[in-house]
Design brief:
Strand content: 35-45%
Number of helices: 4
Helix content: 10-25%
Structural class: alpha+beta
Shape: globular
């Protein structure tokens, strides 16, 4: 068995599209690794996440907005994306990001109330670098 590096963008995006969870690595306030599983959306080289408007992860990102986001599926393929978090504040941009996120999980159309949009924190992560691998690939003769 061998590990194969995947460089084809379509293959990378196919792996991302099959994932339900994105594991996000952040540096905590003491400089330690901190990883949280999150729902996500992906479009045009950007990962979208959402959370409450306040909390420990928001405090951590205020200090250091560099993240590592990993998507994988159980059949031994993984994608690791690196970038910097920007927070979207404009209500209409938040709605569009929520639509991108929800399209990852459902084909249904959603409507978001003004209070819901106001009270959600939208994380936008333009991808700076991406690596993808397929593990345990049989050797060919």
């Amino acid at each position: 068995m061998k590990t194969v590096i995947i460089e084809n963008k379509e293959q990378v995006e196919e792996i991302i599209s099959r994932c339900d969870i994105c594991f996000v690595g952040i540096t905590d306030l003491e400089g330690n690794p901190y990883v949280i599983p999150m729902n996500f959306g992906y479009q045009d080289g950007v990962i979208y996440l959402h959370s409450g408007p306040t909390g420990s992860s928001i405090d951590m990102l205020a200090r250091n907005n560099r993240v590592c986001a990993c998507s994988y599926r159980m059949r031994a393929k993984s994608v690791i994306c690196r970038g910097r978090v920007n927070f979207i504040e404009d209500p209409e941009e938040k709605r569009e990001a929520l639509n991108i996120l929800m399209r990852h999980y459902s084909s249904r159309e959603f409507v978001y109330s003004d209070p819901a949009v106001k009270n959600v924190k939208i994380w936008e992560i333009p991808i700076d670098s991406v690596t993808a691998k397929e593990y345990a690939v049989p050797h060919t003769k």
